[in-house]
Design brief:
The protein has 353 residues and is mostly beta strands. The chain is built from 2 helices and 17 strands. The strands form 3 sheets. It has an 11-stranded antiparallel beta barrel with strand order 1-3-4-6-7-10-11-13-14-16-17. The N and C termini lie far apart (49 Å).
Length: 353
């Protein structure tokens, strides 16, 4: 009876997929790890530990409000402006890079301890516009920040491991180690000043980062899914806290050889506006939408394509190299914000007994 309610396309695709399950989950398979941009995707056996390094990049550009892309003129028209010269600032290009060092250790078969240390660099180009005596002038300026972000520590607790399934809880705590008082030179203020929220390196708050992850293997392919969140537990020293962020990921992978697999994935994310406002932020939301705490929320759907490689012999035995490219297919933003162009992750992992 239930089959009548499934889409015909799903039934057609399912007819070509192997349905036999494995008796036990095989952690040594090349596709036993999720795409490299998924964090906390797998656990280890007792006594195992793992080191990892990830390089992540993201590009944003243009302007968007809701689900509509805006031209530069349309975006400037929506910014109220400030002062006698009607000063306005429009962020329109931003690149973010992050280096992430990770460590995992399993004191038992069911518990894997994790720690992650990020180092981030953010660069933004903005357009400024002023009108004086019926004459409008437009210039550009750049700002940059770099440093350690928020460290994460916690554990992954595996509670189900049967019939090719592995299911575990993600129990992670974010620590407020990243700066929220980064400054750079702002031409309109003619001095160094605190930068808006998107240029800060951390949240300034302790964060609960709960989640649940499921992995499923078949003889010729595998799939997985993860639901997770980041929830600020306290107000930071600047008098605000980031809105909650929720993530839902699903992926499927197929080995091409014992040492290589490919994956496709979908990533849905939601994030809320900021609660409160930064006490030392002198940039006005009337002049720059990046300084508006009520214009920081949104949602996005990304699709990803990835490759996982694993050494099987010699000096490369056990080393994993993985890459994934992600692009948005749907995005809706609260207020004027930059659109996401793409993101990518490249990473290395190595487990030791």
């Amino acid at each position: 009876m239930l089959l009548r309610h499934l889409p015909a396309s799903f039934l057609a695709v399912s007819a070509f997929l192997p349905v036999a399950s494995l008796a036990h989950y095989q952690g040594g398979r090349v596709d036993s790890h999720a795409p490299i941009s998924v964090m906390g995707d797998h656990t280890h056996g007792k006594g195992e530990w793992m080191l990892s390094y990830r390089y992540m990049g993201m590009s944003m550009s243009g302007a968007k409000s809701g689900s509509e892309s805006l031209s530069t003129e349309e975006a400037f028209a929506e910014i109220p402006g400030m002062g006698m010269m009607n000063m306005k600032v429009l962020p329109y290009e931003m690149t973010m890079e992050m280096h992430m060092l990770g460590g995992m250790y399993a004191p038992t078969d069911n518990l894997t301890l994790v720690a992650m240390l990020p180092y981030a660099t953010r660069e933004m180009t903005a357009k400024s516009r002023m009108t004086m005596m019926m004459t409008t002038t437009e210039t550009e300026f750049d700002t940059q920040t770099s440093g350690i972000g928020d460290v994460a520590v916690g554990g992954l607790y595996k509670f189900y491991d049967q019939d090719g399934y592995r299911v575990h809880l993600n129990l992670v705590l974010g620590l407020p180690t990243g700066s929220i008082e980064e400054e750079d030179y702002l031409p309109m203020q003619q001095q160094d000043a605190q930068l808006p929220y998107g240029m800060q390196l951390g949240s300034g708050s302790y964060e609960a980062r709960p989640g649940i992850t499921v992995n499923k293997q078949f003889p010729g392919w595998s799939w997985g899914a993860q639901a997770s969140a980041k929830i600020a537990l306290d107000q930071n020293d600047q008098g605000y806290k980031l809105g909650s962020r929720r993530y839902l990921s699903a992926w499927a992978a197929r080995p091409l050889a014992p040492w290589a697999s490919v994956s496709v994935a979908a990533y849905k994310s939601w994030w809320s506006d900021i609660h409160g406002e930064a006490e030392d932020l002198t940039v006005s939301p009337m002049m720059n939408p990046a300084a508006d705490p009520d214009a920081r929320g949104g949602q996005r759907l990304d699709l990803g394509l990835g490759v996982n490689l694993m050494g099987k012999q010699g000096a490369l035995n056990g080393h994993r190299l993985a890459m994934e490219y992600r692009a948005p297919v749907q995005e809706s933003l609260h207020g004027i914000q930059m659109e996401t162009d793409y993101s990518f992750t490249v990473g290395w992992q190595k487990a030791f007994n």
